Amino acid sequence: AQTVTQSQPEMSVQEAETVTLSCTYDTSENNYYLFWYKQPPSRQMILVIRQEAYKQQNATENRFSVNFQKAAKSFSLKISDSQLGDTAMYFCAFIGSYNTDKLIFGTGTRLQVFP
Amino acid sequence: NAGVMQNPRHLVRRRGQEARLRCSPMKGHSHVYWYRQLPEEGLKFMVYLQKENIIDESGMPKERFSAEFPKEGPSILRIQQVVRGDSAAYFCASSPQGWDTQYFGPGTRLTVL
To answer: Which residues are CB-contacts of A62 (< 8 A; sequence separation ≥ 6)?
Structure first.
């Protein structure tokens, strides 16, 4: 069974600094997608970034980038130049090519950005 | 292009009543997914539907819960005879095809008194 693990329940960072959120996953599949979703206090689930497993290049979206280590099954999110609006729960998620219908989520990391 | 719409945003029911949650996918999306988020937890898959078909309901409780996605109109998640343990946020997501990025609606927060 596929699993997603986020080992940091809470993190904090000062505004304008950089922070990295960790995620590991377990799967026997070779083709899959990985995602980071953000859930601010409004509770809306917002897609932050997506990584295809077959791509070696790490995905980047403005201040957000990932470090995808396929052999280690690691998928960390780096937030550069942190802003107060980045305060949120961050969820790592996996979808495989065999179980194409369901996202499997980690338990989340609560990020607090301080001024 | 409007995003995924869900209504109501908040729903209060007394034990034993029925709850109906609605989801309209993004334009051009024919795949709908329902997830449940209990307090302080991540999202858990419930059901995956395409128009008029339930593709996978492996995450749905066997009793009291049902889902549909008719040819016309929104997808409906129906919970009969609600109990306090059903209190949660219910999220709908849609995608243009299977095995693709899922975009989420704002969720419906169900409170059972």
So the answer is: none
- The pLDDT tens digits for A67-102 are 999 999 999 999 999 999 999 999 999 998 776 678
Residue of B nearest to A51 (CA): B101
- d(CA A86, nearest CA chain B) in Å: 18
Per-position DSSP letters for B11-35, written without gaps between them = EEE-TT--EEEEEEPPTT--EEEEE
What is the model's pLDDT at position A101? Answer: 74
* Residue B12 scores a pLDDT above 60: yes
Rounded CA-CA distance A77/A100 in Å is 23
SS (H, E, C) chain A: CCEEECCCCEEEEECCCCEEECCEEECCCCCEEEEEEEECCCCCCEEEEEEECCCCCCCEECCEEEEEECCCCEEEEEECCCCHHHCEEEEEEEEECCCCCCCEECCCEEEEEEC
Chain B partners within 8 Å of A105 (Cβ): 42-44
B47: enclosing H helix or E strand:
strand B43-50
Interface test with A, best of B26, B43, B49 (most A CBs within 10 A): B43
Q: Nearest-CA residue of chain A relative to B93? A: A45
Convert A67-98 to b/e letters by CB count within 10 Å (16 or more is b): ebeeeebebbbebeebeeebbbbbbbbbbbee
Cβ contact A14:A114 at 8 Å: yes
